Amino acid sequence: MSKGSLTVVGTGIRLSQMTMEARISIESADKVLYAVADAVTETAIKKLNSTAESLQPFYKPGKYCLVTYKDMVNRILSFLRKRLDVCAAFYGHPGVFVYSSHEAIQQARREGFRAVMLPATSAEDNLFADLGVDPAASGCQSFETTDFLIRRRKFDPTSHLILWQIGNIGNWKPERQDCASNLQALVDVLEEHYDPDHEVVLYLAAQYASCDPMIERVPLSEIPQTPISNVTTLYVPPRGIAPIDYVMLDRLGIPRALVRKAPQRNSRKRSSVKGRSRHTRNS
Question: The whole model's pTM is what?
C-alpha cells in the first residue's frame, strides 16, 4: 500500500450539519480540495485547513459537466500521487449526486492508495425531517427525474416517492436550458398512477440555519404552473396502503388484527407554503 490516502467527506446541506468526523478529516489533511455551495462553508473549510483549494473554477460556461467532474478527479488524484493525505469535501452527502467523489475513490484504490468516504447529511435526510416522512412506514423510492422518465422506472405508488431535480428534466447541453416545458411529461406519467388532485410537495432544504425550507404543497396537475428551481425535489406521498398478502402474514405468524386493511386515497386540496429560503443546489 502506497503512502498517501484519500478521505472524501460531506459538509451537509448547511454548515451546522458538518460532522465532527468531517471536520477532523479536513483539519488533519495535508491537502484539502472542496466543492461547496456557499461562502459560509467555504470560509469554515479554509479556517480548518490553510491548504484548502476550491474545485469551483473547473466549472465554466459551455463546458460539459462530465468533463468538469473528470477534471476535479484529476486534480484530487494529482496530490494523492505526491503521497499526501488528501481530503476532498463536497456539499451535502459526498456519495449523493457527486460523480467526482466516487470516481476519485475508485481510481485511488486502483492505484493502491487507501481511500474512504465518510457519511454526511443529504437533502433526502433533511426532507425526512422537514416533512415528517418515515421511509420505513411505507417504503421509499428515489430517482433522478430524467432517468425516471426515459427508463420508465417501475415503482410502487403506495410507497413514498422522491424525484430529484425536476426543474432540470431533459437537460443535456453544456449551457443552461429552460426545461420547464418538460414538467408536463412528468405529470402525465405520474397521473397514470395518481389522481390529478393528489397532493405532492415541492421541496428545497434550508441552506442556512436562519432560513426555513421551501415546502410547497400543490395538486399533482398544477406542477407545471408552479415556480420551480433547477434543484427542486418532488416528494409524492403514498396514494394509499398496500394490500396485504394474508398467506404470508399467516406464514410469518403475525396476527391479522395487527395490520391495517383498507387502502386510503390521498387527494387533499392545495395547502399554503410553509417557508422559503435561498438555495443554490441540493444533494
Answer: 0.87
